[in-house]
Design a protein that fits this description.
Strand order of the largest sheet: 1-2-7-4
Number of helices: 2
Largest sheet: 4 strands, antiparallel
CATH architecture of the largest domain: Sandwich
Distance between the termini: 28 Å
Mean pLDDT: 75
CATH class of the largest domain: Mainly Beta
Helix content: 10-25%
Number of strands: 7
CATH topology of the largest domain: Immunoglobulin-like
Number of domains: 2
Length: about 140
């Protein structure tokens, strides 16, 4: 079914069932079919977005990893699993942590991706002279 350009309704016009079906039902079905096709191809779920450019389309997905540092010198690993596995490759992975004023004064906390694959990975957070605390680190990946 093809998209139909929405019509401009005229005051006093008699609206028929076939007009409403074409303008409302058929156009909504067209839009839904495209959303369903995107979900089927890319396995979209919570925290998963399709991004595109003129040359290609790829997927972006994010996960939040909770890390508890029990001391100022701890190094703790946190595993994460993507909502939907990437089909072939990951182009880039980035991670970030938001610190409040209290967190910032806790010392130097470093975090990095220890390992990653198309299905998930491991993040490490290491404290260097700070206090204990709980941190939420967001991991984002771009791929297909």
């Amino acid at each position: 079914m093809a998209w139909t350009t929405p019509r401009t309704w005229v005051a006093g016009e008699v609206v028929t069932a076939s007009m409403m079906n074409e303008q409302v039902r058929d156009n909504l079905s067209y839009l839904k079919d495209h959303v369903d096709a995107t979900s089927g191809v890319h396995g979209l779920g919570s925290g998963v977005y399709v991004i595109g450019s003129k040359m290609a389309q790829c997927r972006m997905e994010y996960k939040s990893v909770s890390i508890v540092l029990s001391s100022g010198t701890a190094a703790v690993e946190g595993n994460f699993t993507w909502n939907n596995a990437f089909s072939s490759s990951i182009t880039a992975i980035v991670c970030g942590c938001v610190y409040g004023t209290t967190d910032y004064n806790m010392g130097r906390n470093l975090y990095y991706i220890k390992s990653a694959s198309t299905t998930g990975g491991t993040l490490v957070m290491a404290a260097s002279g700070g206090l204990a605390g709980t941190f939420s680190v967001t991991v984002m990946a771009f791929g297909v």
